[in-house]
Write a structure and sequence with these properties.
19% of the residues lie in helices and 40% in strands. Helix 1 (7-18) runs antiparallel to helix 2 and helix 3 runs antiparallel to helix 5 (205-217). The strands form 3 sheets. The protein has a 9-stranded antiparallel beta sheet. A hairpin with a 3-residue loop joins strand 3 (41-47) and strand 4. The chain is elongated and about 70 Å long. By secondary structure, it is of the alpha+beta class. It has helices at 7-18, 71-79, 130-140, 185-190, 205-217; strands at residues 2-6, 32-38, 41-47, 51-58, 60-63, 65-70, 85-91, 94-99, 102-107, 125-129, 155-160, 164-170, 175-181, 191-193, 199-204, 221-227, 230-234, 238-243. The chain contains 5 helices and 18 strands. The model has no long low-confidence stretch (mean pLDDT 89).
Length: 269
């Protein structure tokens, strides 16, 4: 493998991949990033077996190839480099890096040992504006339970219907509920769906936090695809795959009062 890539473009990709990596002593390969050079792009992948992240950075690919390298060491080295072109070269399962007068050699691992990040079929998908998605998830995520004792409420519930999308979160003491109506002209420009059936999914809290980060990076469209127990968020330059929480979400609508003795209206500002 031999690649030339601009540090500024690579840094955001590496930072995103590092957020997925958690120290794992039983499976050391999970402490690594998978670096692949193919078709004019440098791919950085990471996974903890529950969630997988793949970023794609435009690069000058001289020779295609791949290698797995220690995530934290690689990330720290990239962050400390000047904003110049970085030369990557793999020889004898070692990664040689050079940026200006700075160079380093990292011992790599066999890339074939890196876990395969699942591919999600895109036959059930919606396309939503990143700002709209960030606003919706951000409106409810703080009401999710932090403890993992009950995974179904340590999550964000997303009910996709032909005319609306509901986002719900609760920790059994408080409830946050956000509805996006798809019939309005404003939402029709920001959300596109290619199906007519309803789908209810439960997104893990950690995945929801990553969605907020990805959606907040730039104002663009995000494609959401659901396939059995997996969900894919794809921006084109980066994609996030996560397992969905299995189980039944609490019947939150039953606890929302239908009438009130007192109503108070205040300005949000």
């Amino acid at each position: 493998m031999q690649v030339i890539c601009l540090k500024e473009n690579l840094k955001s990709a590496v930072d995103g991949a590092l957020r997925i990596v958690k120290h794992n002593s039983s499976l050391p390969i999970l402490n690594n990033l998978l670096i692949e050079a193919e078709k004019g792009r440098l791919k950085i992948s990471s996974t903890d077996l529950e969630m997988g992240f793949v970023s794609r950075t435009p690069s000058q690919v001289v020779k295609e190839g791949k290698i797995a390298v220690p995530a934290q060491v690689f990330g720290q080295f990239i962050n400390n480099l000047p904003n110049q072109n970085i030369d990557f070269e793999v020889k004898n399962q070692k990664l040689f890096l050079k940026c200006g007068e700075i160079g380093a050699t990292l011992n790599g691992l066999n890339p074939e040992d890196f876990p395969i990040i699942p591919k999600v079929k895109k036959d059930y998908a919606l396309i939503i504006n990143s700002e709209t998605l960030k606003n919706a998830v951000g409106s409810v995520v703080n009401s999710s339970a932090v403890s993992g004792a009950r995974p179904e409420i340590s999550s964000v519930y997303m009910a996709i219907e032909p005319d609306r999308i509901k986002f719900v979160a609760t920790d059994s003491f408080r409830l946050a509920h956000k509805i996006i109506f798809l019939e309005s002209e404003e939402m029709q420009d920001k959300i596109k769906i290619n199906y007519s059936t309803s789908r209810n999914i439960i997104i893990p809290l950690r995945t929801a936090a990553e969605i907020l980060r990805i959606a907040g990076e730039k104002n663009s469209d995000i494609s959401i695809s659901v396939d059995q127990n997996q969900i894919l968020f794809d921006t084109g330059d980066a994609s996030l795959v996560s397992r969905l929480v299995e189980g039944v979400y609490p019947d939150y609508e039953a606890i929302i009062p239908k009438s009130f003795e007192t109503n108070c209206y205040v300005s949000k500002s």
